[in-house]
Amino acid sequence: MATAAKTPRFSHPAARDTCPFAPPPAYRQAQQEEPVSRVTLWDGSTTWLVTRHEDVKAVLADRRFSSDSTRPGFPFISAGARQLNAGQPTFIRMDDPEHSRLRRMLTGEFMIKKVEALRPEVQRIADELLDRMTEGRSSADLVREFALPLPSLVICLLLGVPYQDHAFFQECSRVLLRRESSAEEVIDAQARLTDYLIRLTEAKRSEPDDGILSRLVERGDLSTEEIGAMGRLLLVAGHETTANMTALSVLALLRNPEQLDHLRRHPESAPGAVEELLRYLTIVHSGLTRVATEDVDLGGVRIRAGEGVVCMVNTANRDEQEFPGGDELDLTRDARRHLAFGFGVHQCLGQPLARLELQIALNTVLRRLPGLRLAVPFEEIAFRGEMLIYGVHELPVAW
To answer: Left if phi > 0, otherwise alpha if psi is -120 to 50, otherwise beta: which for 44?
Structure first.
């Protein structure tokens, strides 16, 4: 069994190749040659990089790998990411029992049956956004006018956050999720967003509504700071992930016209198509981070207690052993084993809502815009390689 003394293979995050949808070549090569390998982080520290599907799944399911970012050895991929996990933590950076205690308070809000009841309202929002986008025009930026406002409106509705404040919290989100953000920039954005949510939470005490924040207040067993931290997590994750996944999915379909035609002709196949797009695109390109709490043997090496681990879900979702032909987009593929939402006790709480929004968004765009096409050359599209959540900054389209 190998030990932790291996020489780092490369620096993480690695440089991208010419295909913006594919993981960087260094990760794919590591998956084939050294699927559990050492890499160097921004601050000169080293961590383990896990790239195969079976190994990533094993780490995410193993309680010996901690999500607690306060533990020594926990890997951070940037100075901003380290600062983001300072201060009031959210439950995704906790272990049980505290993780389960806080997560259970929100589980009922995102149960499949409750989310499905939102379908008519999400469909109404999608149609109204496209009505405004297409009125008197034949081109627009799909990110700004559809992909971003759709999940933002929905998460604001669910939380009880005024949508008129969307420019503020979207700007804070951009700072928090930008890898190049300095610690000072993250401290400022985090403080402003948390203070905003704390003030909003205090207002709910005297003027409650039907939103999640009000229901958390009504419980009486959470501090205002805890509610503010939970609200921050849901607000940022609730719009950034789905917004980028929507725009990137449309772009991937435009680059694969036979797949686009399949979904347009078979809108009932949207649930399966969304799973394949989630697998193929996997917008968390920097990996999911853990730290070992005891020695663990994985993929032919021994990971020592106190050593960090970065699970590359994007390479795991292209693993040929799990998804033959995984570099190809195939909407008829059974992709349900993908790890785009993570795995184990920390897998994404809001995945039923994300699936619903993506199904509605894609079907509505394809149905309403039969002549949909890029308005600029593909080579001019600016991808979000500097962000923790991958996507495109703008998506100019015409119809």
So the answer is: left
